[in-house]
Automatic annotation (TrEMBL):
Family the UniProt entry places it in: Belongs to the WD repeat NOL10/ENP2 family.
Protein name, entry field: Nucleolar protein 10
UniProt domain NUC153: residue ranges: 460-486
Domain Nucleolar protein 10-like second: 348-396
Location(s), subcellular: Nucleus, Nucleolus
Compositional bias ranges of the Basic and acidic residues kind: 626-641
Record keyword DNA-binding present: no
Biased composition (Basic residues): 642-665
Gene Ontology CC terms, in alphabetical order: 90S preribosome; small-subunit processome
Keywords: Coiled coil, Nucleus, Repeat, WD repeat
The organism of origin for this protein: Phaethon lepturus (White-tailed tropicbird)
GO biological process: maturation of SSU-rRNA from tricistronic rRNA transcript (SSU-rRNA, 5.8S rRNA, LSU-rRNA)
Span of domain Nucleolar protein 10-like N-terminal: 1-343
């Protein structure tokens, strides 16, 4: 896109791919901008309007070229093809004029009272319904050739309108964010939807009241509504709540809504992006972001072709094979797409190199970001291939030597593949791997044909780490290994010899020397059968060695204990506790080591716990908490205090009785 025209022409001469590019329709473009694009009902003609000067162009798909071009007095807001071909067309212009064209050209021109924004054609009654900057919907009857009584709405202005193709319900979207539905037979309003309120969800952020910018019916019951804040609402006419609310997340008005019935998709577009999503789940199918702003989208009927009118001279044509087959006038596209799928080729720019920001930092060219030498594209930059090669040579002057060394290594690997392959053992647990290989070879010899092949541990991904991670290395000097595998020493000696032979062969192969012819090893010739007596002697020998090692370790620990000086340790006693002796702590430790059953029996003997059976059959346990020394002292003091009070009361009552007797006498 940033290449000059001269450079593009030069590329067309050199590049075979550019010369093979397909131009479906010749001169499928406008002088400056295209605003609307539509397809006739018979599928033969594609009509587009644009500027500048205001004009309409008709393209014949059978001839793959332009059929005619007509200039107009003012810009076209929207248009409609009334017939199956191009013979009857209605244009709504920006200066309130409605212009009718027939097959030969301009036919008639009339004016509506207010500026129009959209219109729809009611086929049963031949009425045109115009909506615009007014609360009224103007009706123009084409059979009688005169205006009929307008429909009075509650809206201040209307933006879009549409007629249901099944039952001809007329719907119009207002600037207040509402959709009014009218019955053309009775000319009465039959429904009102508040789409502005329904479009506001938890995640959406809006600055003002959303208005209706797009409207489209699907069948008899479904209707899609697009708002000026970038939401698409799918309604069932039997409900006032939307089935799905889809947000474009750009905050731009929805320009066009189309239905793709084969895959149950909705194609919605704003000025920046085209999104295709499932109308049942709302899941995104795909999206397209053209180079220029989108004005209108047209889906070619019963195919996977999509056309867009843009803020650019060229009108884009997209073919998506998943949506449907190619139209019959360009059926060769199906064969081309099949060939592309069979032979995928990566496109490479010969004159430019794509580099990321990290590549620029490695080359030391990060300071060129923002200059004319780098062209920003997606997540990186395009730079001249000559500059890239110079920077690469300066950053890594030995790149050619590395490349040459790598090529030589590849040639050597190819030659090695033709030789006899040796057993490649892993770095970790080589002896275990060799043992498994030998067992597999023995099983292959003795295995019957009907038995299934068992999976190998060396090839199983679950045990892959055991031969890669050094933490899983088998410790042959450990006590468990030596006792459980008493005969492993003899067998390991045989395997170690084999390992040495294999390592020598690998070393010779790396030195690029000739391989010696294999000879029978001494280990195989000196193989002897181990009986039970030999096994017992080996176990005794291992146990004797373990005892000797343990005795040596004990002596070393004893020497270390004699050399270390014991220092006194001091313990802090908590407040409120008295230190008696170390025997109490020892008793507690012994008690804690006992099982729960032993502790319960001990507490039953002491009388602190009582376990009894209930009538239901379960166990009932009652226990008494042990009292601390401080609580015991407090209880003794309280008991002594109560006794003193009793003695005082008794003495006082005794004195009173004596005084009473003295008075009587």
């Amino acid at each position: 896109q940033w290449l000059s025209d001269r450079k593009k022409r030069a590329l067309q001469k050199k590049d075979v791919d550019i010369r093979r590019r397909i131009e479906l329709i010749q001169d499928f473009e406008m002088p400056t901008v295209s605003t609307k694009i539509k397809v006739s009902r018979d599928g033969q003609y594609i009509m587009a309007v644009g500027t500048y000067k205001p004009r309409v162009r008709c393209f014949d798909t059978y001839q793959l070229s332009q059929k005619f071009e007509r200039c107009l007095d003012s810009e076209v807001v929207t248009f409609e093809i009334l017939s199956d071909d191009y013979s009857k067309i209605v244009f709504l212009q920006c200066d309130r004029f409605v212009e009718f064209h027939s097959q030969h050209g301009h036919y008639y021109r009339t004016r509506i009272p207010k500026f129009g924004r959209d219109f729809s054609y009611h086929y049963p009654s031949c009425d045109l319904y115009f909506v615009g900057a007014s609360s009224e919907v103007y009706r123009l009857n084409l059979e009688q050739g005169r205006f009929l009584n307008s429909l009075q709405t509650d809206a201040s202005e209307s933006n879009v309108c549409d007629l249901n193709p099944v039952h001809f319900l007329f719907a119009m979207g207002t600037a207040e964010g509402k959709v009014e539905c009218w019955d053309p037979r009775t000319r009465n309003r039959v429904g009102l939807l508040d789409c502005a309120l329904s479009s506001v969800t938890v995640d959406t952020e809006i600055d003002g009241l959303p208005s209706i910018s797009a409207l489209k019916f699907d069948g008899a019951l479904n209707m899609a509504v697009g708002t000026s804040t970038g939401q698409v609402l799918l309604y069932d006419l039997r409900s006032s709540n939307p089935l799905i609310v889809k947000d474009h997340h750009y905050g731009l008005p929805i320009k066009s809504i189309q239905f793709q019935c084969q895959l149950d998709l909705i194609i919605s577009a704003d000025s920046r992006i085209i999104k295709m999503w499932n109308k049942d789940t709302g899941k995104i199918f795909t999206s397209m972001e053209p180079e220029y702003e989108i004005n209108d989208v047209c889906l070619y009927p019963n195919s996977g072709m999509l056309m867009t009118a843009n803020e650019a001279p060229k009108m884009n044509i997209y073919y998506i094979p998943v949506l449907g087959p190619a139209p019959k006038w360009c059926s060769f596209l199906d064969n081309l797409t099949e060939e592309l799928e069979e032979n995928p080729e990566s496109t490479v720019y010969d004159d430019y190199k794509f580099v990321t920001r990290k590549d620029l930092e490695n080359l030391g060219l990060a300071h060129l970001i923002g200059s004319s030498l780098l062209r920003a594209y997606m997540h990186g930059f395009f730079m001249d291939i000559r500059l890239y090669h110079k920077a690469k040579m300066m950053a890594n002057p030995f790149a050619y030597e590395e490349y040459r060394r790598e090529k030589i290594r590849q040639k050597i690997e190819e030659a090695r593949a033709q030789r006899v392959q040796l057993k490649k053992l892993p770095k970790v647990n080589k002896e275990l791997a060799l043992k498994l290989i030998e067992e597999e070879e023995e099983q292959q010899v003795t295995r019957r044909r009907k038995q299934k092949n068992l999976p190998s541990l060396l090839k199983d991904d679950r045990f892959k780490v055991m031969f890669e991670n050094p933490d899983f290395q088998v410790d042959e000097q450990s006590e468990e290994f030596r006792l459980l595998n008493p005969l492993v020493s003899k067998i390991s000696e045989k395997r170690k010899r084999k390992l040495r032979i294999l390592e020598e062969l690998e070393a010779k192969e790396q030195e690029e020397e000739e391989e010696p012819e294999g000879k029978a090893s001494d280990a195989e010739s000196s193989e002897s059968s181990d009986d039970e007596k030999g096994w017992v002697e080996e176990v005794r020998k291992q146990r004797k060695l373990l005892r000797q090692e343990e005795k040596v370790k004990r002596q070393e620990r004893f020497k270390e204990d004699q050399q270390t000086l014991l220092k006194p340790q001091f313990f802090e006693i908590k407040e409120g506790e008295e230190f008696r002796s170390f025997k109490d702590s020892a008793k507690k430790q012994k008690l804690m080591k006992k099982t729960l059953g032993d502790r319960l029996k001990l507490e039953e003997k002491l009388g602190t716990l009582n376990v009894s059976d209930t009538t239901v059959g379960s166990k009932q346990a009652t226990f008494k908490l042990k009292k601390s020394e401080q609580q015991k002292k407090q209880q003794e003091a309280e008991k002594q205090h109560r006794q003193e009070r009793r003695t005082l009361r008794r003495s006082a009552s005794h004195l009173k009785s004596k005084r009473g007797r003295g008075r009587l006498f």
